[in-house]
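1st attempt posting a full record on here, be nice pls
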Amino acid sequence: MPSTLTPKLSLPAVKKSDSIRRLVIILGDQLSLDAKALTGFDPRQDLIWMAEAKQESTHVPSSKQRIAVFLSAMRHFAAEVKANNWPLDYTEIESPLHTGTLRGELSKALTHHSPTEVHVTQPGEFRVLSDIKLTCEDLGTKLIIHPDNHFFTDISDFEVFAKSRKQLRMEYWYRELRQRFNILMDNGEPSGGQWNFDADNRQSFGKSGPPPIPAPLLIKPDAITKEVIELVQRIYPDHVGSLAEFGWPVTRRDALAALDIFIGERLQMFGSFEDAMWTQEPWLYHSHLSVLLNLKLLNPREVVAAAEKAYIDGKAPIASVEGFIRQILGWREYVRGIYWTQMPEYLGLNALKATHPLPSFFWNGVTEMNCLNESLAQTFKYGYAHHIQRLMVLGLYTLMYGVDPKYVHEWFLSVYVDAVEWVELPNTLGMSQFGDGGIIASKPYIASGKYIQRMSNYCSGCKFDPSMSTGEEACPMTTLYWDFLIRHQKLLTKNPRMGMQLKNLLRLDAQKLDLIKQTAQSHREKYK
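the predicted structure (as tokens):
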């Protein structure tokens, strides 16, 4: 489905004006004409400012897919602004005398235009917010930060919730929002008679594999996207990933088409198989909408409303609809609250005192472990992996290996097209790596290779045996699982949810424990 926007972005230089009232910053993850910062925008005296900057692709070494998604979406949005005849100052990454940083370009723009005020919607990253604040302070320009209306709640809402809770568990926040916004509610009670259908949403495909899977929506690159792809290949030739099959929606029109296709073709089966994995099947029944939500090409209200309508109309079961809505109304709102109430200290948390570097194969994909091979290959090819591949394959491995969570965070922020720090950091450092010591997760999410065998067919094509923890055929996931329990036994004893796993550990004799530790250390030496 081709985009209907102009085939190529061409913007004239913006001349200095002495009458600019507001300079409105639109960041790369705020691509909506409904952004709060644009409220009251007057094209006769206000100016939209956007800038590409190399620093945004190199402060973590972003994958080619991630860079291309952001740049193409930004340029298409700029074309939309231009089509509306709104004044726009847009700096491309190869513009003459480019400073290379967002802060440097903003400083130049404020000096050039001398606006009375700068308006910006709440950024998605603490670093970017700090840079904007410092730049405006340095130049004595008034800065007004608007709440982001592409969420159901404001950060202040979560602050109120957090003050009333000893533990910040997502489930209670989610239930509160279901009631507040009357979503999947029947006369004050949850639709279907219960709040959470998670237990119904953990099916595997079995030996026969998945039922027929609808083809994903892949957008054929238009002139703007082709230009971006060529630019990324030229400027970032050594960054990970491939652009050979780039097909992400990058416009509002195509984002709405992606939503319609998911609701009509995938939502019905989403719930049952949302945790399942299968070789050479990256898309399965997932929505692939997170990148569109995080770029603000879709509003979560319209996404949730579409899913709820499918349930009301009898087109999708309650377990699928509730599971999907929980990811947006519950988890998405929750991790954003965690991020902004815990930063900047959150970035440095390392509760398990993990110190190992990230194994090199996370950048080149060369490993003998088939589950990691599959997840990494599709990550590099599409900039995408679904939540179980991220949490229970890639994240599981780094957690049990003992990688410093900051390195894991930087890798996840680098490679995925939907990665913006407000959502990626809590998911990675907190949920996946237990680096926050339990602010998000009530226990470390650890499992042996048997879990992956149950939820996928990855193990059938692998040289390792998930039932073995020692020996040449031992599955590294299983070895590292037991090694993790051994290393953190004292800490985990205090966690009531770890009782069964620790009880199984106590059944192993001293010789077996020593052999597991030796095998785990040999694995780390091999994959440094």
